[in-house]
Specification:
mainly beta, 5-stranded antiparallel sheet, 3-stranded antiparallel sheet, 8% helix
C-alpha cells in the first residue's frame, strides 16, 4: 500500500496491500459466480491476515509476468461481462484488471509443469489484492473444490 514492491511469498500478517473495492459486491459471499455489465469501484487498501505457502507442480504464466495456479481467481473481462474466474478459464484475448485501474489484454498464457512454491495470502476487507500488478482474489478452496466436483460430473 506504500508503493513499495514486495514478493507475495514475503507478505506477513499485518502488511497492507493495494486492493480494489468493487461497487455492489460483497467480497466475502458474493464473488463466486458473480458477474456484471456495470463495473465500478475504487482503489483501497487490504490487510494481510495470513499467507500460506505451498508447492505445486503446475501453474499458468500470464503475459510472461504473473504466475498463478489453475484455480486462482482473477478479475476478468470477457466481452462486456466482468467476473471473477479461475485462471484456468481465462483465454488469450480476454482482459484483466491492472494496478493502473485499466483493462489490459491477455496476450499470452503458458501452462508450465514444474515444481514451484506459491503463496496464498488471505486479505481483508475486500478479499482481493494486486499481484504483479494484476487484481486477484483470495483463493477459496471450498468453493473451488465444489466447482471441480461439478466439472467432474
Amino acid at each position: 500500500a506504500t508503493g513499495e514492491n514486495k514478493n507475495v511469498e514475503d507478505l506477513v500478517a499485518g502488511d497492507l496491500v493495494r486492493a480494489y473495492d468493487i461497487e455492489g459486491l460483497n467480497q466475502d459471499s458474493d464473488w463466486y459466480g458473480w458477474s456484471t455489465l456495470l463495473f465500478n469501484g475504487e482503489p483501497t487498501v487490504a490487510e494481510v491476515k495470513s499467507n500460506t505457502l505451498s508447492t505445486y507442480s503446475r501453474y499458468y504464466l500470464f503475459n510472461n509476468t504473473l504466475k498463478v495456479t489453475n484455480e486462482h481467481p482473477m478479475l476478468v473481462k470477457k466481452g462486456d461481462t466482468v467476473s471473477w474466474e479461475g485462471s484456468r478459464d481465462i483465454n488469450v484475448g480476454d482482459k484483466i484488471f491492472n494496478s493502473s485501474y485499466e483493462w489490459i489484454n491477455v496476450d499470452s498464457i503458458e501452462e508450465i509443469y514444474e515444481d514451484i512454491q506459491v503463496a496464498d495470502p488471505n486479505v481483508e476487507e475486500v478479499d482481493n489484492f494486486f499481484a504483479e500488478g494484476i487484481l486477484v482474489h483470495n483463493n477459496d478452496p471450498e468453493e473451488l473444490a465444489k466447482e471441480d466436483q461439478q466439472n467432474a460430473l
